[in-house]
DNA sequence: AAAATTTTTAATCATTTGATTAAAAATTTT
DNA sequence: AAAATTTTTAATCAAATGATTAAAAATTTT
């Protein structure tokens, strides 16, 4: 029973390759994966990768773009919601991202290591500055600061702390599990706990 | 003006190789570095790597071992100090680790990606379970829980939050800097701020 | 069902890359 | 300073790896 997340319509070979590429790239990163690994994971002839995607780099680009847009797209939606309060946004981010990452736990480390290896190229495709700076979230944050509801004036600290509390455990998951003999279910339970706790912690940290 | 941290006694060729290997391995990881990259960084003939260290893997092992022991050795000392309170330990960890990582900012991502690529092999060399479970810190934490000074009973949440607040910003540094046009000095200033703030945040989160 | 097109396969290529070797250069020992 | 030892170099090797090719197989179109 291997099979990672995306296990839906692997009908076409093109989709089989993409699914396999995701699995292997997520686990080992671009540099450490061999095109033969992907072909084997997909159960397909090696030449098909080049037939459908031209090159390893092109295939990687596609996986990367989809991963990015999945990851920050949902963030943008949450941060830009006019109808939710700042507090509700924190709740939603904790809830949704823990669910999202739990399904594909390798994604955070994958994104971070690939950005490390190629920051200029990858970051220019990510309009993070705009997403954050032009967001409803930032407006609400600045209002809360002005109304003295929040003690910390720098939204960067706020976001780093929030995302750190959500994402960091997934990044150190191998260390935690190896060092405390946790099973996957126990780790997942721990993260479910954090869904509730993170918004409370954030409130305690920042609420005046 | 290249030159990363360890730039002291590069007198012998052996040390030159190790310094260069650190620089390249930290930046690109094991899989993405070529032995030729290291030789070039060191300004030495490629064959010298094999002459002094037998193989790329052996050289990597040495760098890895030194990096690990530097990273968790200092942690052990702090966690095992009988003379400091829990609160003081938090202050010391924030202070020392931010200083430590600021000097060699690639280390956290390096450690995490290499553990991802080879968890069994690398983690069995790291007695993290023992360091944490048998520490004075754990004793103090459990006492504080019993005395109702701390609301959160699970030391894992406490440690993850503390280390997340310290380490996570370094891991996402490329994203932060790329997305907000920060300069290195500004990022460093941000981390200096966090030295003071993290202990306060931790108190707010966990103190009854 | 014949022809045309698309997909898949096995074999092979060219480059990259970790490693070795034998000779040259430098250093140390006698 | 001659001999022995250690260190460095240029050349080369062998295996790994991304990619291509030409033929075979499968599918679609006519």
TrEMBL record, chains A, B:
Residues in the DNA-binding region annotation: 34-53
Pfam families membership: TetR_N (PF00440)
InterPro entries linked to this entry: Homeodomain-like_sf, HTH-type_Tx_Regulator, HTH_TetR
Keyword DNA-binding: yes
Cited PROSITE patterns: HTH_TETR_2
Domain of life: Bacteria
Transmembrane segments: none
Keywords on record: DNA-binding
Gene Ontology molecular function: DNA binding
Domain HTH tetR-type: 11-71
Designated name of the protein: Transcriptional regulator, TetR family
Phylogenetic lineage: Bacteria, Pseudomonadati, Bacteroidota, Flavobacteriia, Flavobacteriales
